[in-house]
Amino acid sequence: MQTSDIVRPDPALVRGLAAIGSATASSELNRLGIRSAHITGPVSWTPGVSVAGPALTLQFMPKREDLYQIDEYAEPEKQLHRHVLYHTRPGDVVVVDARANMTSGVFGEMMLSYFAGRGGRGVIVDGCIRDIRRARSLGVGLWIRGVTPNFHSQTDIFPTAVNVPVACGNTVVVPGDIVVADDDGAVVVPVALAAPLLAEASQHAEWEDFSRARLAEGGDLRRYYPISDDARPEYEAWRAARVAGDGREGLAP
């Protein structure tokens, strides 16, 4: 069985998005016209882990027994949930439309061990996995709805396609999109918007650094978040000192 690989984005874009996090990615995408790129439903089961990487996608459909009668170990190469993992390269993120099903575990310890061993970074499942205790120990970020002891097609769903556009958590994910995920959740960045997003986000992050420092010192929220016109000269002086590297970063000019 042959399935298609993805076109991976420029690694520099991925590194840049990893540095800004999901909240900034979401808000900047909103300014660029994407109302909400948040994959709703799956949440972090690996607190403190953040990832960014290109999306490998896996689609499930409602089970129809005349189309899919494979059990857990029979005819492994007909099981498409294996094939999405065969495409794994270092830094990839697997995104699974499991139809918010809570009774089938899309991946378990063995599949996830393989994914981790090939350098996979994160798994986003609009549904469940199993073997959660061991899965958490693999160093892979996990954003899922829950866990179950059942295997991938034991109950109501079965895998139907690899690396096609999917709806995960009511959000469209195109193969090769960049997924940014952390404790706030997972956000999908279309590749075509990654560069303009980063350009806006770098400015956003810089003034937030300034505002954060001022607010931590007891500064007026109305003055510093967002930066008011009155605070703008102060920010520009702070920024110039930071660029010059004269040791005045974060201090009042």
Structure description:
The structure is a single chain. The protein has 253 residues and is of the alpha/beta class. The protein folds into 2 domains: 11-191, 3-Layer(bba) Sandwich (Glucose Oxidase, domain 1); 195-244, no CATH class. The chain contains 7 helices and 11 strands. Strands 1, 2, 3, 4, 5, 6, 7, 10 and 11 form a 9-stranded mixed sheet that branches. A two-stranded antiparallel sheet has the order 8-9. Helix 1 packs across helix 5 (191-216). The protein is elongated and about 70 Å long. Mean pLDDT is 92; it is low at 247-253.
Report Rg.
Answer: 21 Å
Please name the CATH architecture of the largest domain.
Answer: 3-Layer(bba) Sandwich
The shape, in one word, is elongated
CATH topology of the largest domain: Glucose Oxidase, domain 1
Q: Give the topology string: H per helix, E per strand.
A: HEEEHEHEHEEEEEEHHH
How much of the sequence is in beta strands? 15-25%
The number of domains: 2
Query: Termini distance?
Result: 65 Å
Number of strands: 11
* Arithmetic mean pLDDT: 92
Put simply, the count of helices is 7
> Residue ranges: pLDDT <50 for 5 or more in a row?
247-253
Largest sheet: 9 strands, mixed
What is the CATH H-level superfamily of the largest domain? Ribonuclease E inhibitor RraA/RraA-like
* CATH class wording of the largest domain: Alpha Beta
Secondary structure class reads alpha/beta
**Helicity, in percent?**
25-40%
